[in-house]
């Protein structure tokens, strides 16, 4: 008997989806057992890859870790095991830059089985009840937020991801310089711009991740609209939560639509596994369009395959979540793939959060972040 262990994150989207595909793979391969464990969303972002690959054969992981995984040889490249045609098919059916975000040194270290970026969501019933217009521009968003009915995740990691979005909206090209993330005056303006919005929202936003925001929106009537929250299609399905959310595009700023920071997740194989071939075969099974549009989605997953996002049957089950947000995914920007990036992300997130929370001056935060950025380039 071959026994594989995997680690995912503890939400229906990240866990029951792969448990379902593992069960079906076992039925097709009776000599294989696959056991999935789960960790919190924060642990999902913070965990040491070197520890995880020592304990698990399969990992669900996000894209910023790939450079470390590749350089330190923590994962097996799919190109060495799966056919070039299959890898090319996934590349051709990527949702935005999802597939490319896992490619370093011209090798594919992870298969994008999940695609996500911050999108807008709202409660259609409350929008109708209170005769609210869904904002299309930044100014309209500011006005709606003054009602106290707008919320979005603003914990440290989400605050940093939104910061990139605002820097880009202000015309900067993020991470191109070797001495600062973007020009200092733009970093300052971007933080102040975001802080202006945060100051109008309920204070709990500073302590909530995207899942908690969605649970709040679907379990209570306190929040009507979220302008940018990493998308979870589960909450647009009937009978998943108490209420159903409608999803759509981001607002515009100075006439251009905001471009959020690509997230999502993919399946990877530990370089220390004893069962590389089987792990690779299971990963291919999970990433295939048939599984993505079928079992994976049906059991809570948010597919990473473009054909699943365009699939009418899939969209009919979630109020066209995928079709209505696909352009936002296609326009999303990728985080940099240099080796020291995770050092910057981990260290800069709490600093920018302190600035947005009003605990330190914005200028102080910017200078600290740029110091960390320069350090990260030396790792």
- Give a count of the beta strands, DSSP E runs of length 2 or more: 12
The CATH H-level homologous superfamily of the largest domain = Periplasmic binding protein-like II
Judging by the overall fold, what is the CATH architecture of the largest domain? 3-Layer(aba) Sandwich
Cα gyration radius (Å): 20 Å
Structural class based on helices, strands and sheet pairing: alpha+beta
Distance between the termini: 42 Å
Shape designation: globular
The structural domain count equals 2
Helical percentage: 40-55%
CATH class wording of the largest domain = Alpha Beta
Tally of separate helices: 17
Q: How are strands sequenced across the largest beta sheet? A: 2-1-3-12-6
Order of H and E elements = EHEHHEHHEEEEHHHHHEEEEEHHHHHHH
Secondary-structure map:
Layout (H helix, E strand, L loop, with lengths): L1 E8 L6 H13 L3 E8 L1 H6 L2 H7 L2 E4 L4 H6 L12 H9 L10 E2 L2 E2 L2 E4 L3 E5 L1 H6 L8 H8 L10 H14 L14 H15 L11 H10 L5 E6 L15 E3 L3 E2 L2 E2 L7 E5 L6 H12 L1 H10 L7 H5 L1 H5 L4 H11 L9 H16 L5 H15 L3
Parallel strand pairs: 1-2, 1-3
Antiparallel strand pairs: 3-12, 4-5, 6-12, 7-8, 7-9, 10-11
């Amino acid at each position: 008997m071959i026994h594989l262990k995997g680690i995912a994150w503890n939400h229906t989207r990240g866990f029951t989806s792969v448990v379902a595909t593992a069960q079906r793979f076992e039925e097709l391969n009776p000599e294989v057992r696959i056991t999935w464990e789960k960790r919190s969303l924060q642990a999902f972002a913070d965990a040491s890859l070197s520890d995880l690959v020592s304990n698990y054969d399969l990992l669900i992981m996000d894209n910023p870790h790939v450079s470390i995984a590749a350089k330190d040889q923590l994962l097996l490249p799919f190109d060495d095991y799966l056919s070039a045609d299959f890898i090319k098919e996934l590349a051709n059916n990527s949702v935005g830059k999802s597939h490319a975000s896992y490619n370093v040194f011209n090798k594919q270290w992870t298969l994008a089985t999940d695609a996500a970026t911050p999108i807008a969501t709202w409660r259609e019933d409350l929008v109708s009840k209170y005769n609210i217009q869904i904002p299309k521009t930044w100014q309209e968003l500011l006005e709606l937020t003054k009602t106290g009915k707008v919320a979005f995740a603003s914990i440290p990691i989400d605050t940093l991801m939104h910061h990139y979005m605002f820097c880009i909206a202000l015309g900067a090209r993020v991470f191109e310089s070797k001495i600062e993330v973007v020009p200092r005056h733009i970093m300052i303006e971007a933080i102040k711009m975001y802080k202006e919005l945060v100051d109008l929202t309920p204070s709990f936003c500073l302590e909530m991740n995207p899942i908690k925001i969605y649970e709040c929106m679907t379990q209570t009537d306190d929040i009507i609209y979220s302008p940018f929250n990493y998308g979870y299609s589960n909450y647009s399905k009937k009978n998943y939560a108490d209420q159903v959310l409608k999803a759509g595009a981001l607002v515009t700023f100075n006439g251009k639509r905001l471009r959020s920071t690509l997230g999502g997740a993919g399946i990877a194989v530990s370089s220390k596994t004893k069962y590389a071939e089987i792990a690779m075969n299971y990963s291919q099974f999970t990433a295939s369009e048939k599984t993505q549009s079928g079992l994976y989605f049906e059991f809570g997953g948010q597919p990473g395959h473009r054909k699943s996002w365009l699939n009418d049957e899939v969209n009919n089950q979630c109020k066209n979540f995928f079709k209505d947000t696909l352009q936002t995914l296609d326009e999303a920007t990728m985080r940099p793939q240099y080796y020291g990036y995770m050092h910057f992300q981990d260290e800069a997130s709490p600093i920018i959060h302190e600035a947005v929370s009003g605990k330190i001056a914005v200028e102080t935060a910017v200078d600290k972040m740029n110091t960390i950025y320069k350090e990260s380039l030396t790792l």
